Amino acid sequence: CAGGESLYREAVEKELAEEMYLSEIEGDYDHGSTAHFPDFDRTKWQEVRRERHNDGPGWDFVVYRLKR
User: Fold this and answer.
1) d(CA 45, CA 40)
2) From CA 66, how far away is CA 15, in angstroms rounded?
3) How far apart, in Å, are the Cα atoms of 21 and each of 9, 13, 30, 31, 50?
4) Do the Cβ atoms of 31 and 62 come closer than 8 Å?
5) DSSP 1
6) Pairwise CA distance, residues 55 & 53, whole Å
7) Rounded to whole angstroms, what are the CA distances from 59 to 48, 50, 51?
């Protein structure tokens, strides 16, 4: 499979990525999509920045850096 989810999963699991820039949206959403950003071991990643946004559903822009 060459979809985005499998590429993200490989980059995170094999530690090919050193930083992640994520939008973390509050709530549970099911729009019928089968592709999702993979769960990751948060003990391996350090949160280095978080920006809180309260427009619409609450969400945060978060930067994670791989611990080495």
Assistant:
1) 9
2) 8
3) 14, 16, 22, 22, 10
4) no
5) -
6) 6
7) 17, 10, 9
Q: How far apart are CA 6 and CA 62, in angstroms?
A: 21
Q: Detail the DSSP E strand segments found in the chain.
A: 19-25, 45-53, 59-66
CA 53-58-62 angle, 5° bins: 55
Task: Please give the single-letter amino acid code of residue 60.
Answer: D
Structure tokens, 36: 């999702």
pLDDT digits (tens, 9 = 90+) for 11-38: 888 889 999 999 998 887 776 666 778 8
Q: What percent of the chain has pLDDT over 70?
A: 88
Six-digit token string for 21 = 């820039």
Q: Give the pLDDT confidence score for residue 34 in this predicted structure.
A: 67
- Token pair belonging to 38: 């993979």
Beta bridge partners, 52, equal 60
